[in-house]
């Protein structure tokens, strides 16, 4: 039997099939049932409810294969497509089933739905052929030569799978040299996933990309998208400012109109004070624009507030006069003559800025980007097995990952940890057998922990904080008593000295410094958890009680953010807490904030990039490795990546070092737990 062949020796899909007699045949003759068989079958099993469904898994592939053969043989083809003078035979129902563009064309009574030949304009013939081939085979071949044509054609014909495949291919081969041109192409075709992937790549490699010639052709809108992001991977904010200026200077007449909106994307308060004064303020493009000058003025006010805070912080310790002189020189570089109280105004080019009328709330551009915000370290503690840890983990906020770095020399739980002078200090604690007076210091440059002078008193449940260049070890306990003693460590002389005792014994106390004072929060006096708090003035060498917290807390995380003191979680006697509160030093008053997602006693807390991170702890049933971050702007806690070990009683601190240093500090992530604890 011969049907519809196009000739030319094409394969006949009906070849080899014997002609059939299509006369009706009764069912009884075709399928005679044995009486014995029927009687042998349990009639109950013949009910419709016990029917069995069968599925031929190879059927879809076989149907596609047959349809492809039909098209190759021009069997039952009923439509012809033409692109660039090249004609392609196909079946309407296959095109309608596989390509939404044709389904819409054939089902809406368009003129083309009845035409035997349809002219396809603006799509390359080779791309159209591959899409028709995909409709019949479900396969597509993408390479660097055809990917843009295929993405363009797939977008027009609405073949989502092909578009996604093309975007995946482009992402796979993104480079510093091609990402900007691909981004422009993706934007033209509204490829949102591709745009997002390219922007992520561009932020990761911003320093290299911004130096490429094609970066100069980026649109103002695209540049703003990059510069607004906290994920921008930079070494310092100067790079961002210089990128803006370089982009404007490519075509000042056309691009100067975008200067204000682009400058607002630069986090000006993160610039060094001398650079802000000697480079930004006097740059001709900035100096000639009133709105730009206003942005710079706001940044200067922010820096001066930081100066005042630093001045208070350093002036509390006579041994830190060198650092105090440095902060005075910063303020002097703005034309400010230092005096004991806060400056009331600053004049820039005759425009007076009243500091009392400038906003004091959080200013978003003052927040550092993730790549310059620093690193959180989680040190020691104890976990499910009960033994203290030696292990140390560091958090890279930009990548949202925890990295294991070099272990401490000895195990420490309920250890005090702080960063000072570019180094990390682990002080006291318990090694599983004894209370410790020893202390050790980690230097990121050498990637080594080295011992420093021991404290005068062994203790665990200790809290440590810094004022100026001095480290203070506060409270703690041993097996017989909770302590009210406080020791001060001088980094330069490597010596510990006792200072004034607190008013109350405090084991498991929380400590943080704000301005020129040190705060001791809660703890346990040996009988019960405490809600009392006190403030230390190093100039007077005296502690005074301040307003009590709303809840009793021992083993709480304590930190400072935007001038407020935060108390996070902890234990009320044996009950772990999820509640949190903050203290306003100006009002001497505590108030509640949003609670965490779960109770956390013995939680470690640190501030990073304008957020508070609560790490690990114990929820009353188990040790935790989960971590959540609090954003004061939204009063919400949100989960971030977990630490690798469940632990409580760890020492947690923030350090002002670049997350990139973790690449050289990290140890083998596959190392056994026995080597890490």
Automatic annotation (TrEMBL):
The keyword Repeat applies. The keyword Transcription does not apply. Keywords: Kelch repeat, Repeat. Residues 77-144 form the BTB domain. InterPro entries: BACK, BTB/POZ_dom, Gal_Oxase/kelch_b-propeller, Kelch-typ_b-propeller, Kelch_1, SKP1/BTB/POZ_sf. It holds the Pfam family BACK. This is BTB domain-containing protein. It comes from Steinernema carpocapsae. The lineage of its organism: Eukaryota, Metazoa, Ecdysozoa, Nematoda, Chromadorea.
């Amino acid at each position: 039997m011969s049907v519809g062949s196009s000739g030319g020796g094409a394969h006949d899909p009906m070849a080899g099939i014997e002609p059939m007699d299509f006369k009706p045949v009764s069912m009884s003759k075709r399928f005679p049932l044995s009486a014995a068989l029927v009687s042998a079958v349990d009639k109950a099993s013949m009910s419709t409810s016990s029917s069995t469904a069968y599925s031929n898994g190879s059927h879809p592939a076989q149907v596609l294969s047959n349809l492809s053969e039909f098209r190759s043989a021009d069997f039952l083809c009923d439509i012809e497509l033409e692109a660039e003078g090249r004609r392609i035979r196909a079946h309407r129902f296959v095109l309608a089933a596989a390509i939404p563009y044709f389904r819409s064309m054939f089902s809406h009574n368009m003129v083309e739905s009845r035409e035997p030949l349809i002219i396809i304009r603006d799509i390359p013939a080779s791309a159209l052929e591959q899409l028709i081939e995909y409709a019949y085979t479900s396969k597509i071949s993408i390479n660097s030569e055809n990917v843009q044509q295929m993405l363009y054609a797939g977008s027009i014909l609405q073949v989502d799978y092909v578009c996604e495949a093309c975007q995946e291919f482009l992402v796979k081969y993104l480079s510093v040299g091609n990402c900007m041109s691909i981004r422009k192409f993706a934007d033209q075709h509204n490829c949102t996933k591709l745009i997002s992937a390219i922007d992520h790549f561009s932020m990761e490699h911003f320093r290299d990309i911004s130096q490429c010639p094609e970066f100069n052709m980026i649109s103002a809108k695209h540049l703003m998208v990059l510069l607004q992001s906290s994920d921008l991977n930079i070494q310092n904010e100067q790079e961002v400012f210089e990128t803006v200026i370089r982009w404007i200077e490519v075509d000042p007449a056309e691009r100067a109109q975008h200067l204000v909106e682009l400058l607002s994307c630069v986090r000006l308060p993160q610039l060094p004070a001398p650079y802000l004064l000697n480079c930004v303020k006097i740059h001709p493009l900035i100096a000639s624009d009133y709105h730009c000058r206003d942005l710079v003025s706001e940044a200067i006010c922010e820096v001066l507030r930081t100066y005042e805070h630093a001045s208070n912080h350093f002036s509390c310790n006579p041994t830190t006069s060198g650092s105090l002189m440095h902060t005075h020189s910063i303020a002097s570089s703005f034309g400010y003559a230092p005096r004991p109280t806060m400056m009331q105004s600053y004049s820039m080019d005759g425009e007076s800025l009243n500091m009392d009328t400038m906003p004091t709330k959080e200013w978003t551009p003052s927040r550092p980007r993730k790549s310059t915000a620093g690193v959180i370290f989680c040190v020691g503690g104890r976990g499910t097995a009960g033994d203290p840890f030696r292990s140390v983990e560091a958090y890279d906020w930009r990548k949202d990952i925890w990295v294991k770095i070099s272990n401490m020399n000895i195990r420490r739980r309920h250890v005090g940890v702080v960063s000072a002078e570019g180094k990390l200090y682990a002080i006291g604690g318990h090694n599983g057998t004894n209370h410790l007076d020893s202390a050790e210091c980690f230097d990121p440059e050498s990637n080594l922990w080295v011992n420093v002078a021991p404290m005068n008193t062994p203790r665990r449940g200790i809290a440590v904080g810094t004022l100026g260049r001095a480290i203070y070890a506060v409270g703690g306990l041993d097996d017989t008593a909770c302590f009210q003693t406080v020791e001060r460590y001088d980094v330069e002389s490597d010596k510990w000295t006792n200072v004034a005792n607190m008013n109350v014994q405090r084991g498991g106390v929380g400590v943080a410094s704000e301005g020129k004072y040190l705060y001791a929060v809660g703890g346990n006096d040996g009988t019960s958890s405490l809600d009392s708090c006190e403030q230390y003035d190093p100039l007077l060498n005296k502690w005074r009680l301040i307003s009590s917290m709303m809840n009793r807390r021992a083993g709480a995380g304590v930190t400072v953010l935007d001038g407020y003191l935060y108390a996070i979680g902890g234990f009320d006697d044996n009950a772990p807490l999820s509640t949190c509160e903050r203290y306003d030093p100006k009002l001497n008053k505590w108030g509640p904030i949003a609670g965490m997602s779960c109770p956390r006693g013995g939680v470690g807390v640190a501030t990073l990039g304008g957020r508070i991170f609560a790490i690990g702890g114990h929820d009353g049933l188990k040790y935790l490795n989960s971590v959540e971050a609090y954003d004061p702007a939204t009063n919400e806690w949100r989960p971030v990546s977990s630490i690798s070990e469940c632990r409580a009683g760890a020492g947690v601190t923030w350090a002002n070092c670049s997350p990139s240093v973790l690449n050289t500090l990290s140890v083998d992530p596959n190392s056994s737990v026995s080597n890490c604890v």
